[in-house]
Design goal:
CATH class: Alpha Beta
Family: Belongs to the purine nucleoside phosphorylase YfiH/LACC1 family.
Structural class: alpha+beta
GO molecular function: copper ion binding; hydrolase activity; S-methyl-5-thioadenosine phosphorylase activity
Distance between the termini: 27 Å
Helix content: 10-25%
Pfam families: Cu-oxidase_4
Largest sheet: 6 strands, mixed
Number of domains: 1
Keywords: Copper, Hydrolase, Metal-binding, Transferase, Zinc
CATH architecture: 4-Layer Sandwich
Number of helices: 6
Protein name: Purine nucleoside phosphorylase
Length: 250
């Protein structure tokens, strides 16, 4: 189920956390979404997607309606979560919370998933950082929002995404990204213009004094992960973070 995950128990002065990135394995979806597809907007059977989401909720020990997904729009909107969604799922590309009874999730199939955490302050976040989000500064907005909630020592887990060698783009698009994150400008396997979004995101995080744990992997090259750029019709995997009771304010 999880390509990478970590569970740290709470202590007297720190919240615990369960965070990780799912793979495409361990679910019930049929081809071409076969496996643990968590995306409800990609043409998969809704009953299969819901069954997969239930499995992830159980893995992080929250009720299904406490596993919270965003309606991701490739922007910079950040939503502060104070409980399970009531009504429509909000448009956002980042969510942050101080609660220990919810798990935050970000869906990807090539974009860069970022999980944020300050165990001492009891604040967590999940960010959808594709190329538009990186350019718009969604990571910085999420970090700022966490600091407004009391976070001071933030660490990030940056999950697998399409690598720069596999993300060929027009030269003008690369130039636009490079104006925001120069390190993101690169070339593809064939020497054409390309963007390394993850490198740009990691540089943005480090510039904000965030400690980064980079989980390696290219979605386009890995059979364990979904990739829109490789397959077009495909599923979505997720980054998931849940604070565990300790000093968190849930």
């Amino acid at each position: 189920m999880f390509l990478w995950s970590q569970r740290l128990e709470p202590s007297a002065d720190r919240s615990g956390v369960h965070w990780g990135f799912t793979s495409r394995h361990g679910g019930v979806s049929a081809a071409p979404w076969d496996g643990l597809n968590l995306g409800g907007h990609v043409g998969d059977e809704p009953v299969a997607v819901e069954a997969n989401r239930v499995r992830v909720a159980e893995a992080v020990a929250v009720p299904r309606d406490h596993l919270l997904f965003m309606n991701q729009v490739h922007g910079d909107q950040v939503v502060v979560v104070d409980g399970p969604w009531s009504g429509a799922v909000p448009d956002a590309d980042a969510v942050v919370t101080t609660r220990t009874d919810v798990a935050l999730a970000v869906l990807v199939a090539d974009c860069t998933p970022v999980l944020l955490l300050d165990r001492e302050a009891g604040v967590a976040g999940a960010v959808h950082a594709g190329r538009p989000g990186m350019v718009a500064g969604v990571v910085g907005r999420a970090v700022t929002t966490m600091r407004e909630l009391g976070a001071r020592r933030i660490e990030a887990a940056v999950g697998p995404s399409v690598c720069g060698r596999c993300y060929e783009v027009p030269a003008a698009m690369r130039a636009d990204a490079a104006r925001v994150a120069p390190v993101s400008a690169t070339v593809s396997w064939t020497g054409t213009p390309a963007i390394d979004v993850a490198a740009g995101v990691v540089t943005q995080l480090r510039g904000l004094d965030v400690t980064v744990h980079w989980v390696p992997g290219c979605t386009r090259e890995s059979a364990d992960l979904y990739s829109y750029r490789r397959d077009k019709v495909t599923g979505r995997f997720a980054g998931v973070v849940r604070l565990l009771p300790g000093t968190g304010r849930g």
